[in-house]
Amino acid sequence: MNTHDKGGLKEPADDRSKLLLMYGLAALSAAVVLFSMIDTLVVGMRMAARHAPQIDAAMEIKLEATRAHLWFEELIGGDETRNIAEVWSFIDSADWYAQALLEGDESEEGKFLPLKDDRLRGSVQEIQGQLAEFRRITKQRYETPAESAICSEIDQEYDKVYEQLMLKADEMESFFQGKITADLDRFRLVQIALIALAAGMFITVAIIFDFFIRRHLRDEKQLHAANQQLQASEQQLRAANQQLQASEQQLRASNLQLVAGEQQLRASNQQLRASEQQLKASNQQLGAGEQQLRAANEQLATREKEYRLLFNEMISGLAVHEIICDEKGNLCDYRFLDINPAFEKLTGLKKKDVTGNTIRQIMPTIEAFWIDTYGKVALTGEPTHFEHYNKELAKHFDVTAYMPKHGQFAVIFNDVTERKHAQMETERLNRSLSVKNKELQSIVYVASHDLRSPLVNIQGFSGELNGSCRDLRRLLETRDISDELRQDMIRLVSQDIPEALEFIGAGTEKMKTLLAGLLHVSRAGSIDIDVKALDMNELLASVVAATQFQIDDMKAKVTLEDLPPCLGDADQINQVFSNLVSNALKYSSPDRAAAVSVSGRVSDDSVVYCVEDNGLGIQDNHKENIFEIFHRLNPKDSPDGEGLGLTIVSRILDRHDGRVWVESKPDEGSRFFVSIPKA
Ligand code: ADP
Q1: pLDDT digit string, tens, across residues 517-575
Q2: Atom of ligand 1 nearest to the CA of 646
Q3: What are the residues whose beta carbons fall under 8 Å from the beta carbon of 311, sequence distance 6 or more?
């Protein structure tokens, strides 16, 4: 990973080489500057220490020689203020400077260093010789009288000597001047180089500075980013720390669990040992199982044979097909793969004619519905079952199609024509029964209702007859008739007729009760019902509350379990459970305290409720009769009853698509079951 990836502060490799190059350049520039400065110093020092005094000396030589010349001219011109000694002192002074140039000395002008250059030394010595010559010629001229003939010759020589001296002095001065100029040139050159180098160095330093600033900024940015990362990491660290603490607590809890687990483990270990032994036993069983497996395998082969046999022998028609789709994947046809003999028999189609052929080849007019229906079975695996009437064969078939393998379907069908006819007949009979039932109901209603008035008449006239008998007896006692006749008639009016009237009264009373019962039953079967979801816990609570007096009186125990809701008419279902609970209490055993419980459970689409008692129980042969109208098993068990309660229960449940049945053991108790559609 490189430094950028890490976001660290290291310099990249190319930065480092750039920096090195720049450092090198700066160092080089600094070295050159230093060198130039030293060089300037050396040149300057040389100029100050050597060349400046030398040029001074050269100029002084010239000056002193010129002074000597002027003074001498004035002297020989007759100026008495001048003297030859002065002239010569000037020449000596010039010579002193020449000597100082050669050997080195010190004067007011400064220190003179001895010349090293031999050629220059020769020039100086030449000047010294010319100075000596100058002194000689001045002496000669001074000592020679003005009127002497050789004076002009000496003057000519003098001019020549002086001229040469000045020439030589000029030459030397020029030479030193040249030296100084050379030094100055060099000095200037070094100055320019220094300025250039300083500029270069400045630029280099500026670049380095810029580089450092940029790097600093970059580093600062990275530092900032790193800082942010650090802060984020710190937060994460804190969160992690909290998690760690939570984990520590969990760990402690886990540790406790672990200890508990260890104990469980020990227990499990013991169980494991027991299991190991069981395993050994199982292993042995496994061996036995293997043998059974072999036997099962053999059975499988036998089964396959049996399956073939079944396929061939079964009375249901069976055909296996494969579905065919067109290029777009739409269902378009199906092909017969196999059919059994029953199929041949039921359809008249032969195996050799259909196997391998498609349904469209065999039956070109087949409706697409069949291909779609079977195709869905073959592709989705969802079986289908339906009844179908085949017009050509004039037969009803019960058809089941299923998917034995993806893309295939098997069709099993049975000829149910007879059953269908029977079913249709039953439906027809049911319809007529329902009509008859309705007629019967209206007859029962009308009879029970309308018969009440003749009965009331009979009761009324019986009462009148009774009164007439009493009147007749009074008359007989007062009338004058034979005793025998009186006796016979009195017996008739006070014994036989009242007795007959009593029978008529009892009969009419019974008939009245029966008619009331009939009316009740008829109403239960005809009254409008309002079906809705019923809270059975509430309903049974109200039923029990209504019989609470009887329950308390009998010291009976009634238990209501949690009851699922059902769909029904509240009043009628209340009537059902009122009758059943009341019977359970009514037919209790005199040997034990009555205990009644009501429970319920959902079974498929219905709720089955059970009213259980520990009463007298019902013998097996009466279990059906008790639901018949006016049927009472043993009226003396309870005088209070008309044999209508269970009939009404059964009637109400018929109207609710429900059912009632009983399980019972004599002298142990009964369980009345009621099934009602669930809510
Ligand atoms: P009733 O109770 O008026 O006689 P029911 O139709 O209610 O008429 O009952 C018919 C008969 O069934 C009763 O006479 C009785 O003999 C019998 N029976 C009904 N319920 C019970 C029960 N819980 N235990 C024993 N016998 C019963």
Answers
A1: 888 887 777 788 999 999 999 999 999 999 999 999 999 999 999 999 999 999 999 99
A2: 6
A3: 318, 340
Q: Ligand 1 — pocket residues by CB below 6 A? A: 579, 583-584, 587, 613, 615-618, 626, 631-634, 637, 641-647, 670
Query: Between the CA of residue 414 and those of 42, 313, 386, 398, what are the distances in Å?
Result: 135, 14, 11, 5
- Asked if 349 and 359 touch (Cβ cutoff 8 Å), the reply is no
Residue 355 CA to residue 342 CA, distance in Å, equals 15
Checking if the pLDDT of 282 tops 90, the result is no
DSSP 541-556: HHHHHHTHHHHHHHT-
Starting at the edge strand that comes first in sequence, how are the strands of the sheet with 606-613 ordered?
Answer: 557-560, 595-603, 606-613, 669-677, 659-665
Tokens 């016979």 locate to 488
- Going from the Cα of 563 to the center of ligand 1, the distance in angstroms, rounded, reads 24
> Cβ neighbours of residue 130 under 8 Å, at least 6 residues apart?
161, 164, 165, 168
CB atoms within 10 A of CB 479: 10
- Sign of CA pseudo-dihedral 66, 70, 71, 75: positive
Cα–Cα distances in angstroms (integers) from residue 542 to residues 236, 553, 612, in the given order: 66, 18, 18
Q: How far apart are CA 49 and CA 116, in angstroms?
A: 14
For ligand 1, the distance from its centroid to the CA atom of residue 548, given in whole angstroms, is 20
Contact 436, 424 (CB under 8 A): no
CA of 547 from ligand 1 middle (Å) equals 17
CA–CA separation, 57 and 624 (whole Å)? 169
Q: For residue 642, which atom of ligand 1 is closest to its CA? A: 3
Residue 243 confidence (pLDDT): 81
Joined together, the tokens standing for residue 61 give 């030589």
β strands within 585-658, DSSP E: 595-603, 606-613
Residue with tokens 């359970």: 584
Q: Two tokens at 231?
A: 């802060």
Q: 187-237: per-residue pLDDT in tens?
A: 788 778 778 877 877 887 788 788 778 878 887 888 888 888 888 878 888
Weakest mean pLDDT among 123-137, 171-185, 561-575: 171-185
What is the band of 8 on the pLDDT scale with cuts at 50, 70, 90? Answer: very low
| Residue type at 464 in one-letter notation | E
Longest dimension (CA), the chain: 259
Output the CA angle 478-480-483, nearest 5 degrees. 95
